[in-house]
Amino acid sequence: MTVEAQSSAVYSPPERLTNPEGREKPWVSSMAQYEELYKESLEKPAEFWTRMATETLTWIKPFSQVTQGSLKAGNMAWFPDGQLNVSYNCVDRWAAQDPSRVAFVYEADEPGQASQVTYGELLDKVCGVANVLHSFGLRKGDTVAIYMPMIPEAAVAMLACARLGLVHTVVFAGFSSSSLAERVIDARARVVITADEGLRGSRPIATKKIVDEALKSCPEVEKVLVYRRTGNESVAFNASRDVWWHEAVAAQRPYCPPVPVSAEDPLFLLYTSGSTGKPKGVVHTSGGYLLGAALTLKYVFDIHDNDVFCCTADIGWITGHSYVVYGPLALGSTSVIFESVPTYPDASRYWQLVQDHKITQFYTAPTAIRALRRHGDEYVKRCDLSSLRVIGSVGEPINPDAWTWYNDVVGGGRCAVVDTYWQTETGSHVISPLPGATPSKPGSATFPFFGIELAILDPTTGAELEGNDISGVLAIKRPWPSMARTIAGDHKRFLDTYLNPYPGYYFAGDGASRDADGYYWIRGRVDDVINVSGHRMSTAEVESALIGHHAVAESAVVGAPDDLTGQAICAFVTLKDGFDANDELKTELVKEVRTRIGPIATPKILILVDELPKTRSGKIIRRILRKVVAGEADQLGDLSTLSDPSILDMLVRVVTAAL
Ligand code: 6R9
User: Fold this and answer.
1) Number of H helices, E strands in the chain
2) Which residue from 29, 99, 220, 622 has the fewest beta carbons nearer than 10 Å?
3) 198-200 and 191-195 beta bridge pairing
4) Which tens digits make up the pLDDT trace of 431-455?
5) Is there a cis peptide before residue 345, judged by omega within 30 degrees of 0?
6) Cβ atoms of residues 422 and 297 within 8 Å
7) Does any ligand 1 atom lie closer than 6 A to the CB of residue 421?
């Protein structure tokens, strides 16, 4: 296979980084320096990682061994005999140095209401909540679910868990009550931390109500700690189970000793969608994960003292974990927590945010970039973005057009754009430019981060493709500190999903190419995962939500190309006998998915058909549906397994009518 023609433009690191005038030089300021460090990370991993782990983190008990285990066996561990405490590393160290240093800038939903949390205040808050959790009887290794809006207290809740060695599982507050219940049950959480309500674009979100609904099917949950965000009096309160955050914290002393944990003890579970219907609880560790989050942030965003870093991701996703909370705090940096939406009160909100807080590094998703670009340059240009140095993108491939707009209009041609490729499972960036060093090509995530040994494999034979100008599936050849260690309660699934498909490699689930210059280009998922606005959705999960409706016989869900969201959910449904295909039923089915999973899973297109394309043995051939919705019905490939070729015309007709 050869690599298709790429945009040929190459952007050198901007002057602002190469010639920083009065500011610190970038941590890595040339390709030669990157290559030297990268080479060291692969050739002398013990020295490299010992230095990084001791410079970056404070250990209670130093490790004597850097790494053990292998991808083949699936038993990797990092710094296994080291002990540390994550909240100590993220909070106490900086509070001791300078309690007035700002940890979080909180940009509340309503503009003009920003506030700050210093490291000194953060320490008190984290300790207070940790003591409350301790008073609930929670001890090291227990799991706590967090279902909260984007407010500093969400980070406080995470850090309070970390202080006691509790494992948190943050569930994105846009998920429905049944999705929340599924995760709470799978994680065996006995305590849920939430808020009375959320606010997004001035609209209240009934956060606590969703928790109440979810907990009807979670009898194991003993306590719900409720933070008062809006103070709406009508929010239900169950006195035998619910505890007000402010009352409980007021009853505790404001210091809580950090509990030492092993580097390999889990810090959190985070559920993500895979090829099958059931979400996977990806397990991340305390030592390796924290190191990965901190180091990638430092090098990829070139963080220095006095920088103000802003990542717009919700803490319910891995990007929020690594780059709103753990990475910035592990570096003692200032992180912006943004509660609102990019278009409230208008499409200049992000840029206003940059101006108001003098943000130096800004990190968002291609879907937001595309959406804001549609509103026109005026919204950007009216704000002073001169504080920015590095602007990042994550979540899906960024189209060269969107990249160029981001670079020219938002970055004003003065900033480095970092297109960061990584996953929930990788814990932190694995492929990304370094802003002071890497010449970028719009649309390419460029080169591997330190310690990441990439390979491109032939998808069928699993053979590693050597040299440049090749395409295949992306794999990683050796363990790295922040990689996931297992799936909660299902190590076999971990092995089967990531390590067994190509023995000796971590299989990322993405297609990729390496161009003639050695740059990596991510081509999107090769499994049944759809990427909608940078959020992973499993087709199987949406299908099972649809099948849960009494009128549905079968369903097949595929991703359709979408200018704004990258991919959109397109659902094909056949009905049971006796049900009529009509618009009302279609609306009801879309609603069914929203209620069962949440608004992010809303099918954009729902097509009722008489039949689905199937193999002779009765398996639905989603590939055909994918091609038809992409307008590529003339490139269906091998159709020999299709049991009834006559349905193709029907499919093309209904799809054309629906799109
Ligand atoms: C961090 C995050 C992971 C999937 C991943 C890939 C896609 C993420 C990307 C990208 C191209 C990038 N992805 N970043 N594709 N270029 N810079 O998004 O984690 O939600 O687990 O999604 O997202 O397909 O496999 P997660």
Assistant:
1) 22, 30
2) 220
3) unpaired
4) 999 999 999 999 999 999 999 999 9
5) yes
6) no
7) yes
Ligand 1 atom closest to 535 (CA):
20
CB burial readout 478-493, b (16+ within 10 A) else e: bbbbbbbbbbbeeeeb
Q: How far apart are CA 339 and CA 314, in angstroms?
A: 8
Banded pLDDT at 640 (limits 50, 70, 90): confident
Sequence-ordered list of residues with C-beta below 8 angstroms from that of 222, at least 6 positions apart, any chain:
136, 190, 191, 241
Q: What is the mean pLDDT of residues 411-430?
A: 98
**What's the mean per-residue pLDDT of the chain?**
95
Respond yes or no on whether ipTM tops 0.85.
yes
Beta strand pairing status for 102-107 and 535-538?
unpaired
Predicted confidence at residue 615, as pLDDT, reads 78
pLDDT per residue as tens digits for the range 208-223: 999 999 999 999 999 9
Q: Where are the alpha helices (DSSP H) in 137-206?
A: 152-164, 177-187
Quick one: tokens of 258? 């950090």
For residue 276, the one-letter residue type is T
Q: Which atom belonging to ligand 1 lies closest to the Cα atom of 508? A: 25
Q: b or e along 217-247 (b: 16 or more beta carbons within 10 Å of the residue's beta carbon)? A: ebeebebbbbbbbbeeeebeeeeeebbebee
Pull the structure tokens for residue 305.
């003292």
Residue type, 550: H
Bridge-based pairing of strands 280-285 and 486-487 is: antiparallel
Which pLDDT belongs to residue 3? 43
Distance CA 281, CA 273 (A): 9
Closest CA to 188 of 168, 174, 207, 208: 168
Q: Examine the pLDDT at 5 and tell me if it is beyond 60.
A: no
Q: Is 394 touching ligand 1 by the criterion CB < 6 Å?
A: yes
Rg over alpha carbons for the chain, rounded to the nearest Å, is 24
| Tens digits of residue pLDDT in 501-526 | 999 999 999 999 999 999 999 988 88
Closest approach atom of ligand 1 to CA 525: 24
Tokens of 419: 């297109």
C-alpha–C-alpha distance, residues 452 and 473, integer Å: 16
Query: Residues 285, 286, 290, 293: what is their CA dihedral angle, to the nearest 10 degrees?
Result: 20
Q: pTM to 2 decimals?
A: 0.92
Kindly report the protein residue whose alpha carbon is nearest to atom 4 of ligand 1. Answer: 423
- Report CA torsion sign: 121, 122, 124, 129: positive
Q: Ligand 1 in contact with 567 (CB < 6 A)?
A: no
Taking Cα atoms as reference points, which of 563, 300, 318, 294 lies closest to residue 446? Answer: 300
Q: Using pLDDT thresholds of 50, 70 and 90, give the confidence band for residue 137.
A: very high
pLDDT band (50, 70, 90) for residue 74: very high
